[in-house]
Predict the 3D structure of the following.
Amino acid sequence: MNPQAPSIILFAVLFGMVIVWFVLIKLLFNRLEVAHPQKYEAMGRPSLFLRNNIATGWATMKFLFAREHRSLNDGYLSKLSDAMLVFFAIYLLLFFGLSYFVSVPHSA
């Protein structure tokens, strides 16, 4: 087996996870915009591309990590937000795993 194979596979998995993350973020923004417009407005009306800036990015991450969805009493939004937190944690673990494979020399 090619010694670079694990890092190539991990890179492909991480790339796929980024695409999934964009889908999850879009679902989150759509739900907030439709079901909780006041919260959506308070977050700066975030979007994937048009209003994507540091302020809306921080507001989104704060929403997820501070678990602000709980106060909205929305079961779908809570499940989505909790799943996104788990997904983000897994992504970070895999990212650091890739960093390890790339940085540590492997014998042939």
In short: Residues 96 and 102 are 10 Å apart (CA to CA). The two ends are 10 Å apart (CA to CA). The helical segments are 5-35, 37-42, 54-65, 75-103. Residues 25-100 form one domain.
